[in-house]
Amino acid sequence: MPIINYAHRGASEYYPENTLRSFYAGLDMRADGIETDIQRTKDGVLVLHHDDTLTRVPHASGAVKDYTYTELLAMDFGVFKGERFAGERIVRLDTFLTHFGRRGLTLALEIKQYGVEAESLAAVNAHDCRGDVIFTSFMWQSIEDLRKLDGSIRLGLLTETEITPELLDKLEAFHIQQICPRIDLVTEESMKLAVNRGFSVRFWGIKNTDDMHRAISLGGDGMTCNFPDKLSEALGR
Length: 237
Prior knowledge:
Layout: E1 4-8, H1 20-28, E2 33-40, E3 46-48, H2 69-73, E4 91-92, H3 93-100, E5 106-111, H4 117-126, E6 133-137, H5 140-149, E7 154-159, H6 165-173, E8 178-181, H7 188-196, E9 200-206, H8 209-218, E10 222-225, H9 228-234
Parallel strand pairs: 1-2, 1-10, 2-5, 5-6, 6-7, 7-8, 8-9, 9-10
Antiparallel strand pairs: 2-3, 3-4
């Protein structure tokens, strides 16, 4: 199976993350997947933002959940990356799915805020792109709730622990198809353990090209990468 090149929050090495500009740049760099993060505003709008706080947004404090969508829309989500990116706006999940759903891409949607599972699933179903989507989270309860809501949507657990038989047993019990370990915690032995039991493996924490090449050599199904152009080159695309 080909390795999926997930543009991590878009081409976030070069562009302000989780903006339409960054996502499209990732596609220009031949990514065939996009990874992004879901949170909910004070007035219940699902938007894409990674950080727990708004510290990188000028003149803002607190978190996404402390503001209405209209208030967030007035903020600048690009200038932290450089003045030439000033004016980039926060992106709604619906907008993202309109642009990138049903395009043959694999969309890794990370639940960053507990309690948005049902609405996120409803949005994916409304855009008729569930076949393109895999929901992920570090929060076990979030993954468990998604499985209870939907018996067949693809799910992946993000983890900062080693792959163990006990962890795979837990995933198997909830029909969770993918495990997403941090690259520096994966060994050849733990990879064989996951693959031999039929799990998809997607790496994260790719900080440089050495990590990238190690991920390729381990033989996972994909990786989230801030520099999808370098991964595309390494994969001969």
